Each structure stands twice: as C-alpha cells, then as structure tokens.
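Cross-check.
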Amino acid sequence: MEGALSAKDKEFILKKAIHPEGMSKPFGVWTTAFAVDASRLLFISGLTARGPDGKVVGVGSMEEQTRQVCENLRKSVDAAGASLGDIVWVQVFTTDVSKFAEIHAVRRQYFPSEPPASTMVEVPRLVDKDCLIEINAIAALPKLPGSAT
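Predicted model, tokenized:
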C-alpha cells in the first residue's frame, strides 16, 4: 500500500480509494480497496431485509430485499454519526448470484460514487428461509459516536 499513496495522500485522510494500476476496472458497484484511518471503524453485522416489525420485506424479490438491506445499512451508519459514503467494505451473501445485476442496480442508488470494496458469495440458505440477501459492512467513522473528534 505504501507505494500506492502519493505524498499528498500521506497527509492521511479518513479514507482513500485505492485503484491499483495493472488491474481491470471493477465491473460492478465496488472499489478494489480502501486505505483507512483504523482508529475509527464501525463494524456492522450481517443485515437482512427485515423491516422495523422484524418481518422479512419483499419475500421473493431480490430487488426489494436489497433495497431494504441498504436502508438498514443506512440506519446503522446514521446511528453512529456516519453516512453510506463512509462504508469502505461490504460482504454480500445471496442465495442466487445470478441476480448480480439486480443487486448492483439497487446498490448503485445507495453508493453512486466510490462504492465500497466488496465480496459477493452465493450460499444455499440464510438465517430465515425467506431471506435472499445479507450484507455486513465496515465503515470509517468521521468521528467516534458521542465524541467531539
């Protein structure tokens, strides 16, 4: 990573997207890597498409479930004083990776620029038989919750 950062970048900012030379450009909604100030990280557990009542939203619809998961991600980072733009990494578990385009169409709405580094994995089943997608994340917080800095 040292060689990838310019002298200006070494005046370290909270997060910096890393686009390595000699690699293909990401073809989905993700960034290859992020360098972060590791003193302020938020770890978000795997979130599914559960609404405020605890019921699965959008049963049978990957698009609706992805939207609900992204809304749950938004609520999680908001509660910590951050935004979706502060998310630097997501891990996506889906029961149908052939729905990649549908998932990324929704993610593009939530992460329009410098989307987080990402991994997507197909699994046979999630915690609830009606869940089609689960996403966990790491965000680089602009400040620690409840602190001035």
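Residues 18 and 33 are 5 Å apart (CA to CA). The chain has two helices and six strands. Passed to J.P. for a second look.
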